[in-house]
């Protein structure tokens, strides 16, 4: 009798922890590569313990066959990994905006390590990502991400049929909204770049001997930094507002 209870409890905890651990491994901030894997795994197991204590009576019984058990575990891992990547899509807006800004201000060649991407990125993109991560933690939006992890069991219950079409549609809409947000953030710099480069082109046509690029590049960088410093507050306010809206929409 006791062995059956222990097996049932272990089955339920493993089932919950597979999805949540996959979520923690892929979700932004908690799943960044700068955080040690052991810390991410420990955090995932801690969240799993809390969530399992709430959901233990709602879990399906243990499957009779090994194939069904493995299929259920694999399904939970895929759901957790996909939801984690969808949350990471939200952070890609800052990477997109920073990359566009770097190209418009002549700083595309300057590279720095970006913890959100786990690789070298344009220095403006890395800076925006670091500021975004800091503000998300300061404004407690990461609590909403943790709430989304637990809420995923209500939106996608264990053992029930997964609506793949709706799942894919939600991921596609979230990805498109993230890229749209990135270009909206970079819109002032795109307009500035068009006007500035058009002015340089006209100047080169009117004064053929003028060293356009020699004079224009330092001015472009200076104007880019000036515009960036003026708009940084508005950029982060827009991002945090849209980040919360998209996260709430994904959680449902």
Proportion of strand residues: under 5%
Q: Are there runs of 5+ residues with pLDDT below 50, and where?
A: none
Kindly provide the radius of gyration, computed on alpha-carbon positions and rounded to a whole number of angstroms: 23 Å
How many domains make up the 3D coordinates?
1
**What structural class do the secondary elements suggest?**
mainly alpha
Shape: elongated
**H-E string:** HHHEEHHHH
Strand order of the main beta sheet, please?
1-2
Termini separation comes to: 40 Å
Helix content range of the residues, please? Answer: over 70%
Counted beta strands:
2
Number of helices: 7
Mean pLDDT across all amino acids: 80
The major β-sheet equals:
2 strands, antiparallel
Polypeptide structure, described:
This protein has seven helices and two strands, in the order αααββαααα. The two termini are 40 Å apart. The model has no long low-confidence stretch (mean pLDDT 80). It has one domain. Strand 1 and strand 2 form a beta hairpin. The protein is mainly α. 79% of the residues lie in helices and 3% in strands. The chain has a two-stranded antiparallel sheet. Helix 1 packs across helix 2, helix 3 runs parallel beside helix 6 and helix 6 runs antiparallel to helix 7. It is elongated.
Briefly summarize what is shown:
With 252 residues, the chain is mainly alpha-helical.
Keywords:
single chain; 252 residues; mainly alpha; two-stranded antiparallel sheet; 7 helices; 2 strands; 79% helix
Blueprint (SSEs and pairs):
Elements: H1 2-26, H2 37-55, H3 66-105, E1 111-114, E2 119-122, H4 123-138, H5 141-155, H6 164-206, H7 212-251
Antiparallel strand pairs: 1-2
Helix pairs in contact: 1-2, 1-3, 3-4, 3-6, 3-7, 5-7, 6-7
């Amino acid at each position: 009798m006791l062995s059956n209870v222990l097996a049932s409890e272990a089955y339920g905890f493993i089932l919950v922890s597979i999805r949540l651990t996959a979520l923690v491994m892929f979700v932004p901030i908690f799943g960044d590569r700068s955080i040690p894997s052991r810390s991410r795994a420990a955090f995932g197991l801690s969240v799993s313990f809390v969530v399992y204590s709430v959901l233990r009576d709602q879990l399906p019984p243990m499957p009779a066959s090994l194939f069904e058990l493995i299929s259920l575990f694999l399904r939970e891992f895929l759901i957790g990994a996909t939801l984690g990547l969808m949350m990471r899509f939200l952070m890609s807006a800052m990477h997109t905006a920073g990359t566009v800004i770097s190209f418009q201000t002549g700083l595309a060649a300057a590279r720095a390590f970006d913890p959100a991407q786990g690789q070298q990125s344009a220095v403006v993109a890395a800076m925006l990502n670091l500021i975004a991560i800091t503000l998300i933690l300061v404004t407690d939006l990461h609590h909403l991400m943790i709430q989304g992890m637990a809420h995923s069991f209500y939106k996608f219950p264990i053992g029930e049929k997964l609506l793949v079409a709706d799942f894919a549609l939600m991921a596609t809409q979230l990805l498109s909204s993230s890229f749209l947000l990135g270009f909206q953030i970079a819109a002032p710099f795109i307009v500035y770049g068009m006007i500035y480069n058009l002015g340089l082109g006209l100047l080169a046509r009117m004064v053929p001997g003028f060293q356009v690029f020699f004079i224009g590049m330092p001015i472009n960088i200076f104007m880019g930094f000036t515009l960036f410093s003026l708009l940084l507050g508005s950029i982060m306010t827009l991002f945090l507002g849209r980040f919360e809206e998209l996260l709430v929409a994904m959680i449902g």
